[in-house]
Amino acid sequence: MARIVILMYHIIDWSKAERESKYCCLPLRFAQQMEYLSKSGYSLINLNDVADILDGDKSIDSDAVAVTFDDGFEDFYRNAFPILSRFNVPATLFMVSDRIGGDNDWMHCSGSPKRKLLSQSELSELADNGILIGSHTRTHPKLNEISGDKSFLYEEIHDSKCELENKLGCDIQHFAYPYGLFDDTAVESVKQSGYRTACSTRSGFNRSEIDPFLLRRIEVFGSDRLWHFKQKLKFGTNDMSVLFPLRYYFSRAKSNLFASG
User: Fold this and answer.
1) Contact 220/7 with Cβ under 8 angstroms?
2) Half-sphere exposure (CA, 13 Å, Cβ side) for 202?
3) Which end of the chain is more exposed for a tag (fewer CB within 10 A), N or C?
4) Is 60 exposed, middle or buried, given 0-12, 13-18 or 19+ CB atoms closer than 10 A?
5) What's 71's DSSP letter?
């Protein structure tokens, strides 16, 4: 099977504070990245396609890229969606269900600035226009810290699915672990809640042997230039530097040399 890269974004906007700059991709930079994807020869897919591919119900002839967004910030509607539409790039948006129309209150304690999340009408419009909506829990907790309370864990994972389905009138089949944190109990709860896939924040490619409830993603940072972006797609890692390709190919050549010797 060809390789699948799942990209992870958060905010498509100018940063309001240094603390959040890592998660803020400038709209112009995002447009350059999406334009590159549209011309790159990659198969551009969403997570429904990823699930179908892993289930053996769909095949792809080339490496594929799926674009995802965590949290459901309002700037997605203003800044990201028009760019995605312009370059015909499908996307999956993971929404914190109890914070629709609210803000990122889970980030306030760390000193991050307040940001609006998508409203009900904005989220419905996005869903009606091809954006695939997934769940990011009800309140964005650290799932590995609450797994001892299985009823609370179930509410966060299962009830967020139900809330989004009731509000949007569509199936919610995909999940993303807040902060990328999970344990065996959380993963099992995701499976029992009826999701088809779940995304982690572990970097790497997704191939046929990947666990669909531990999908790997590559994070696009606010500081990433276009060459960083291209390298991340090619090598499937968040660890990018000018010398990374040299180290990578040297390591492969060294391994091949020892294998042949």
Assistant:
1) yes
2) 14
3) C
4) middle
5) E
The answer to whether 44 and 65 have CB atoms below 8 angstroms apart is yes
Positive or negative CA dihedral for 247, 202, 179, 99? Answer: positive
- 257 has a pLDDT exceeding 70: no
| 108 class by beta-carbon count within 10 Å (0-12 exposed, 13-18 middle, 19+ buried) | exposed
Q: How many other CB atoms are there within 10 angstroms of residue 9's CB atom?
A: 25
Strands (E) across the chain are located at 4-9, 11-12, 24-25, 43-45, 64-71, 91-95, 132-135, 174-176, 197-199, 218-219
The pLDDT, as a whole number, for residue 254 is: 44
What the chain holds in terms of domains, given with CATH numbers, is 4-260 (3.20.20.370)
Token pair in block for residue 128: 């009606």
- 131-157: pLDDT as tens digits: 999 999 999 999 999 999 999 999 999
Give phi and psi for 96, each to the nearest 5.
Answer: -85, 105
Quote the CA–CA distance of 9 and 76 in Å, as a whole number. 10
pLDDT digits (tens, 9 = 90+) for 29-61: 999 999 999 999 999 999 999 999 999 999 988
Q: Around 43, how many Cα atoms within 13 Å sit in the side-chain half-sphere?
A: 17
CA 205 to chain centre: 13
- DSSP state letter for 215: B
51 within 8 A of 212, measured Cβ to Cβ: yes
